[in-house]
Amino acid sequence: MSVELSNEEISRYSRHLILPEVGMAGQKKLKGTSVLCIGTGGLGSPIAMYLAAAGIGKIGIVDFDVVDYSNLQRQIIHGTADVDRPKVQSGKETLNSINPEVEVVIHETMLTSENALYIIEPYDIVVDGTDNFPTRYLTNDACVLLKKPNVYGSIFRFEGQASVFAPELGGPCYRCLYPEPPPPGMVPSCAEGGVLGVLPGIIGCIQATEIIKLALGKGEPLINRLMLYSALDMSFRELKLRRDPKCPICGENPTITDLIDYQEFCGIGDEPDEPQAHPDEVSVQDMKKAMDDSSSDIAFLDVREYDEVEIAKIEGVPLIPLGELPQRFMELDPNQTIYIHCKVGGRSLKAVEFLKQQGFKYCKSVAGGINAWSDDIDSSVPRY
């Protein structure tokens, strides 16, 4: 089917049309291209918005989450009025307001091994805007099996990276770069480690640029290259990548010929229908009861960072950041019961594990951390 541009579209894309590398033929290519954005968060926001503005004809957005206040610092596709709305609905409205000529298809679902091939197959290019390892490996494997370019990006704190994984175009895949995922909990999430608000805008714009270049067939895409960016240094570095001939999915003798269980592959177990309390955990209600009991000999400890205490704190709880615990655990009584909290409960469990190795017998992690305290005990304590 031939693609034509209306007079309104010619006016809209005039700054593209006067570029010799784009012109009418190139703009028609963009209109004839379909892109699937996996995620409408920090990376997905600028990616989808710039693709819509550029005139990509069909944009699919995959997400199952709802907008949270903490998203608004960087996820510019959503506004304050969108809090608690499904991200795909908010995203679709924004994209349609930017460019009503673009077809926006929403997939309000989690990408899984059962639906990934079905969802990805109709699109020409896939862009990875995810923030977790199971979905990254799933996206990679599905793209390799379907021979679709996978435009990759990731962000953390002040740093980001981007590449184009496309074995069908002679480059490596994500598994060639990262054959195995890190152990669960080894890499903090953005919710734990933070992220500079403008960072996903920079990396997302780079991903959008690569998509447009692929659609136009112009320039040198980031195939066989990994671009590394540091916002603090304002520096870009580039690493050369090679396709791994022993890669289990894109190598010479692939052993992965279908999608697998990516939660299991990344060492993440299924959530039980009725989660059972961890033997090393107590509730925030338990902590509150102990703090109110004047006869209690239970001690309390906060293992967050100093700057987190500036945001929110529980009065009367001393601080030893988790990273300082190996040098300062002697300050604690190994024979005393200690309730340990952090932001959401992950670091406090690590602290309990470490202290047990040092001979502490009665340490407990406070499930849900200070955020659960804010939700269930004292709403005046900020939730962050």
Task: Summarize the structure in short.
With 384 residues, this protein is of the alpha/beta class. It has helices spanning 7-12, 14-17, 23-31, 44-54, 87-98, 116-120, 133-146, 174-177, 190-193, 199-216, 262-265, 284-292, 306-311, 325-328, 346-357, 369-376; strands at residues 34-38, 58-62, 103-107, 125-128, 150-156, 159-165, 225-230, 235-240, 281-282, 299-302, 338-341, 363-366. It folds into two domains: 33-265, NAD(P)-binding Rossmann-like Domain (Rossmann fold, 3-Layer(aba) Sandwich), CATH 3.40.50; 281-376, Oxidized Rhodanese, domain 1.
Keywords:
single chain; 384 residues; alpha/beta; Rossmann fold; Oxidized Rhodanese, domain 1; 2 domains; eight-stranded mixed beta sheet; four-stranded parallel beta sheet; 12 strands; elongated
Structure in words:
The chain starts with 6 loop residues before the first helix and ends in an 8-residue tail after the last helix. It has helices spanning 7-12, 14-17, 23-31, 44-54, 87-98, 116-120, 133-146, 174-177, 190-193, 199-216, 262-265, 284-292, 306-311, 325-328, 346-357, 369-376; strands at residues 34-38, 58-62, 103-107, 125-128, 150-156, 159-165, 225-230, 235-240, 281-282, 299-302, 338-341, 363-366. Strand 5 and strand 6 form a beta hairpin. Helices cover 34% and strands 15% of the residues.
How much helix is in the residues?
Answer: 25-40%
Gyration radius over CA = 24 Å
CATH class of the largest domain: Alpha Beta
N→C terminal distance = 51 Å
CATH architecture of the largest domain: 3-Layer(aba) Sandwich
How much of the sequence is in beta strands?
15-25%
Q: Provide mean pLDDT, rounded.
A: 95
- List the uncertain runs: none
Quantity of strands, as a count: 12
Tally of discrete structural domains: 2
Note the overall shape.
Answer: elongated
Tally the helices: 16
Largest sheet: 8 strands, mixed
Main β-sheet, spatial strand arrangement: 3-2-1-4-5-6-7-8
Element order, helices and strands? HHHEHEHEHEHEEHHHEEHEHEHHEHEH
CATH topology of the largest domain: the name is Rossmann fold
The CATH superfamily of the largest domain bears the name: NAD(P)-binding Rossmann-like Domain
Which structural class best describes the helix and strand composition? alpha/beta
Oligomeric state of the chains in view: single chain
